[in-house]
Amino acid sequence: MSGHSKWHSIKHKKAAKDVKRGKLFGKLVKAIEIAAREGGGDPAGNATLATAIQKAKDASVPADNIDRAIKRGTGEMEGVTYEEIWYEGYAPGGVALFIQCLTDNRNRAASEVRSTLTRNGGSLGEPGSVAYLFNQKGYLLVAGPEDDVMLAALEGGAEDVSDSGDQWEIVTAPTDLPAVRTALEEAGLGIDSADVTQMPTVTVPVDREVAPKVLRLVDLLDDLDDVQAVYANFDISDEVMAEVV
């Protein structure tokens, strides 16, 4: 997907800056709580939890915060109960948006997502209107020699490895992400980002005029406290992406 890896890398770097402002910790901790609640507190038997913990560690979330999040998720400690809700909608240009929320207030989350969409040229869709356009996958961006990347990724169980210029895009089944990451790390390869994501099966080309509107809306949604992640099926060329970000 043209522009996909570049946008993913940009989001990763922005997230690193957010950590310095203390902005991302809450979302990472909520993800750990939900994963522990749904699959148990042992990361060895809960791949979703293992990925959430690793992502938090990558962002330098303190170990105590991670441990408390797991205990809240398993019920060993009291805490706020978060509900996972998915919203579906559209950005300018007909770009599909798949929005994951973890919230303790369904009405607040719905109101903020809806108003952010409508104020910025988007619209809220009906349940099922765009979900079918996305598949859950593990996704990594890795730097290193082609042979080394290919060998380690495939030995780890990756589904696909593709060249994205100065990095390699690696796609895995969601549950295989930890094993693939471990294989890459053991091979001494540099991992720029590793996450479970929603990958679009169909993309929508976006031109220079529409691209800033789409990216602004995605950023505004992502900044909402109840929003955990925003997935979109835009296809922005590298040239346009370089101009607008």
Question: Describe it for me?
Answer:
This protein is an alpha+beta fold and 245 residues long. It folds into 3 domains: 4-74, Orthogonal Bundle (Arc Repressor Mutant, subunit A), CATH 1.10.10.200; 83-132 and 201-237, YebC, transcriptional regulation domain (Alpha-Beta Plaits, 2-Layer Sandwich), CATH 3.30.70.980; 134-200, 2-Layer Sandwich (Alpha-Beta Plaits), CATH 3.30.70.980. Helix content is 45%, strand content 24%. The strands form 3 sheets. A 4-stranded antiparallel beta sheet has the order 3-1-2-9. It has a 4-stranded antiparallel beta sheet with strand order 5-6-4-7, sandwiched between helices. Strands 8-10 form a two-stranded parallel ribbon. The mean pLDDT is 88.
Provide the gyration radius in Å: 18 Å
Residue-averaged pLDDT, rounded?
88
CATH class of the largest domain: Alpha Beta
- Derived from helix and strand composition plus strand pairing, the structural class reads alpha+beta
Helix amount: 40-55%
Low-confidence stretches: none
Number of helices: 9
Please write the string of helix (H) and strand (E) elements.
Answer: HHHHEEHEEHEEHEEHEEH
Q: Tell me, what's the shape?
A: globular
CATH topology of the largest domain: Alpha-Beta Plaits
